């Protein structure tokens, strides 16, 4: 790799000293030196972005401090080393406070100190280039997320996601389990041009409120050696994206804190009141629609509206029948990846079998079926027998494996029907052959427990 | 053998680099120094404190760089009293001998360098 040229500006009105400095830095390879005898001539040329400026403190047209500030005003990143005959420490401290990179007194040590500065600059430049190269490699290795589908509802969701990605607003992604909420979040992250930034997922399931707070906001350990801060995900993501799954499982207090952070872009740590600046983006996902949350817990729904300005609904796969073949082929393509000996294909019957299934597990289930079919297939042709679908009766009773209480199952059934019939309580009461008051009571109980 | 070429010599360490660069820098400094030394003497005669201040300030960087630390410290201290001339002027006069010895020493170093260079060329 060819080393980049290090451009150094020497501002010195003493021709002999200017030549001495030039001779000193010219000993490094790939150094390009330009000399100026006035501050103004250097300021005019600062657009050429020198890696280093050595600035004489006493110049005919300007005092060192004024020249330093004028250079920094034009290029905030400029590294200006003030080289002066003055040994006054106060002057040196003042210049360093005003942004000087270093302060050198003109004496028999100047050359050595200047050498060290240039050596460090070359090292820094190499590290910066290496960092840039690694970033570029990382970017290449990041797989772009594709959202595959022709279904009108799905395409609408995708279109909203693309618009929302650019707007930077909070987004709620909802849809049944396995519909690709995380993939959609990653898609938004990439569409927002944040592919090189971190993408993190947080789920509060199985965590206490205190644990959730620690994971999200970080924690402080106070010991005899001082305060040790562990940054939470909100800080760790930097300018990236944090997807909070099952957000409804977070306490109202945490949701309120998140809403506050969303507005102010900062928060204070609980112990030492340390201020953390937040520049990342929050996405939320849930299996529950906001309308349902309005019924269940208006307070949570209210917070949800504060946190998210847009909502994206992902349809279940059963409503995207036309996409099954497209998605199945996409999964095959992904799975075959780098295969040298050709790609798998579905027989007509295999595809018919797939299309007749109603996929309660949505995309996740389709992918699992295809992964297994690839393993089971004798050659590159996937037959109907290779498509293993769990028997209907097995699937029908699968929900019982969760071992919930009777009350919880009742609740699930009622909410399922409310979703199915657009929250029409009378219709649901009729379908389930129960009184409408029992449904209202259940909703009331649910609101109560969520407000606790 | 010139003592300049010893790595222990502060002048050698301060300038560094290759021989032609060192020779060039040293010669240039001596040229300038000789020119301004005459000017310096004239300024003393004319009691021109402002010009003295300017000349001496110009010498400071070079003298310090070449390792004349003690002399440069004295000049530096005198710069303050020069502002309040003419008291400072008398003290400035006392520098003459030392300045002349700097001139001689630098001249000697450069001659040694040139001699060394000629000898090297002959060997080649």
Number of domains of chain A: 4
User: What is the distance, rounded to the nearest whole angstrom, between the alpha carbons of the first and last residues of chain A?
Assistant: 64 Å
Query: Main sheet of chain A?
Result: 5 strands, parallel
Query: Can you count the beta strands of chain A?
Result: 16
- Estimate the global geometry of chain B from the Cα principal axes: elongated
Q: Give helix and strand order of chain B, one letter per element, not per position.
A: HHHHHH
Beta-strand content of chain B: under 5%
Q: Low-confidence stretches of chain B at least 5 residues in length (pLDDT < 50)?
A: none
What's the overall geometry of chain A? elongated
Helix amount of chain A: 40-55%
CATH architecture of chain B: Up-down Bundle
Q: So what's the CATH class of chain B?
A: Mainly Alpha
| Radius of gyration of chain A (Å) | 32 Å
Q: In the CATH hierarchy, what is the class of the largest domain in chain A?
A: Alpha Beta
Instruction: Classify the oligomer.
Output: heterodimer
* Largest sheet geometry of chain B: none
Which pair of protein chains has the largest interface, and what are the residue counts?
A-B, 20 and 24 residues
Structural class of chain B: mainly alpha
């Amino acid at each position: 790799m060819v080393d980049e040229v290090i451009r150094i500006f020497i501002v010195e009105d003493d021709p002999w000293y200017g030549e001495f400095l030039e001779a000193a830095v010219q000993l490094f390879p790939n150094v390009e030196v330009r000399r100026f005898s006035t501050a103004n001539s250097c300021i005019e040329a600062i657009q050429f972005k020198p890696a280093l400026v050595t600035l004489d403190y006493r110049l005919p047209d300007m005092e060192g401090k004024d020249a330093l500030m004028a250079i920094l005003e034009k290029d905030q990143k400029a590294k200006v080393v003030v080289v002066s005959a003055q040994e006054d420490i106060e002057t040196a401290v003042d210049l360093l406070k005003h942004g000087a990179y270093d302060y050198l007194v003109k004496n028999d040590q100047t050359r050595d100190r200047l050498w060290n500065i240039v050596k460090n600059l070359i090292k820094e430049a190499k590290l910066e280039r290496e960092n840039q190269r690694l970033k570029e490699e990382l970017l290449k290795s990041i797989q772009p997320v594709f959202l595959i589908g022709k279904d009108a509802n799905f395409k609408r969701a995708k279109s909203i996601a693309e618009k929302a990605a650019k707007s930077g607003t909070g987004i709620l992604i909802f849809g049944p389990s396995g519909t690709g909420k995380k993939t959609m979040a990653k898609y938004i992250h990439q569409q927002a041009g944040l592919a090189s930034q971190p993408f993190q997922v947080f789920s509060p399931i199985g965590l206490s409120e205190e644990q959730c707070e620690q994971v999200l906001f970080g924690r402080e350990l106070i010991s005899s050696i001082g305060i040790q801060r562990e940054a939470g995900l909100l800080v760790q993501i930097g300018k990236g994206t944090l997807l909070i799954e099952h957000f409804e499982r977070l306490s109202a207090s945490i949701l309120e804190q998140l809403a506050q952070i969303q507005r102010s872009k900062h928060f204070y740590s609980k112990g030492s009141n340390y201020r953390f600046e937040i520049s990342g983006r929050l996405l939320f996902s849930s299996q529950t629609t906001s309308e349902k949350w309005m019924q269940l817990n208006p307070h949570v729904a209210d917070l949800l509206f504060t946190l998210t300005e847009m909502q994206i609904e992902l349809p279940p796969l059963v409503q995207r029948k036309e996409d099954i073949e497209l998605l199945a082929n996409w999964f095959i393509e992904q799975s075959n990846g780098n295969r040298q000996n050709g790609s798998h294909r579905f027989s007509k019957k295999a595809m018919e079998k797939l299309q007749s299934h109603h996929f309660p597990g949505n995309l996740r289930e389709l992918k699992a079926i295809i992964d297994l079919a690839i393993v089971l297939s004798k050659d590159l042709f996937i037959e109907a027998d290779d498509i293993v679908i769990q028997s209907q009766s097995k699937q029908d009773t699968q929900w019982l494996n969760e071992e919930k209480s009777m009350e919880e199952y009742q609740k699930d059934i009622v909410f399922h029907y409310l979703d199915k019939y657009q929250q029409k309580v009378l219709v649901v009461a009729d379908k389930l052959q129960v009184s409408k008051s029992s449904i209202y009571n259940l909703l009331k109980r649910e609101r109560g427990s969520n407000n606790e | 053998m010139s003592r300049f070429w010893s790595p222990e010599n502060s002048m050698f360490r301060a300038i560094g680099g290759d021989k032609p660069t060192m020779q060039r820098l040293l010669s240039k400094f001596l040229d300038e120094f000789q020119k301004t030394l005459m000017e310096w003497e004239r300024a003393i005669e004319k009691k021109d404190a402002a010009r003295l201040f300017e000349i001496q300030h110009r010498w400071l960087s070079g003298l310090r760089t070449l390792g004349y630390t003690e002399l440069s410290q004295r000049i530096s201290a005198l710069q303050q009293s020069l502002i309040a001339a003419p008291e400072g002027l008398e003290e400035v006069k006392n520098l003459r001998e030392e300045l002349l010895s700097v001139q001689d020493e630098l001249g000697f170093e450069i001659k040694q360098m040139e001699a060394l260079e000629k000898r090297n060329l002959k060997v080649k």
